[in-house]
Amino acid sequence: MNGMSSPRQLTNELILLNELVPLQAQRIIELGCGNARLSRDLLRQHAANMANPAERLEFVEAGAQAIPAPDASFDLAIMLKSLHHVPLERMDEAMAEIERVLKPGGYWYVSEPVYAGDLNELVRVFNDE
């Protein structure tokens, strides 16, 4: 080899998120959360001493382009395979809203699916986004 290491593969995005962003005592919004799998996992990991961590979750139905929260409300915004669902003509609004609800110095974590290669053709049979 030429001294370069192989790319690291992760099977759990929570590991990467924990490495990139300080998560302790953060107020987090997950946009396009579905069943909020990532937020639930984060809460379980960081709320071991809480009687019922799930009661810390609040679900609100709204689009990313109109987030019903005050300015500078969150330390971290997460979009886990949901940004591509924002209509292109509303993308600027969504970006401005995310910036508005994040505290100064806050983080925005976006993870999108990669639709390329042979596996994509197989997945397309049952999940044609």
Q: What's a concise summary of this model?
A:
The protein has 129 residues and is α/β, with parallel strands linked by helices. The protein has helices spanning 13-20, 37-46, 91-101, 118-124, and strands at residues 28-30, 74-80, 102-111.
Note down, in words, how this protein is organized:
With 129 residues, the chain is an alpha/beta fold. The protein has helices at residues 13-20, 37-46, 91-101, 118-124; strands at 28-30, 74-80, 102-111.
Helix/strand layout:
Layout: H1 13-20, E1 28-30, H2 37-46, E2 74-80, H3 91-101, E3 102-111, H4 118-124
Parallel strand pairs: 1-2, 2-3
Strand-residue proportion: 15-25%
Number of strands: 3
Overall pLDDT confidence = 80
Helix content: 25-40%
What global shape is seen? globular
Secondary-structure element pattern, one letter each: HEHEHEH
Rg of Cα set: 17 Å
Largest sheet: 3 strands, parallel
What would you call the structural class? alpha/beta
Q: Report low-confidence residues grouped into runs of 5 or more.
A: none
**Through-space gap between termini:** 39 Å
Number of helices: 4
Question: How is the largest sheet built, in terms of strand order?
Answer: 1-2-3
List keywords for this structure.
129 residues, alpha/beta, 3-stranded parallel sheet, 4 helices, 3 strands, 28% helix
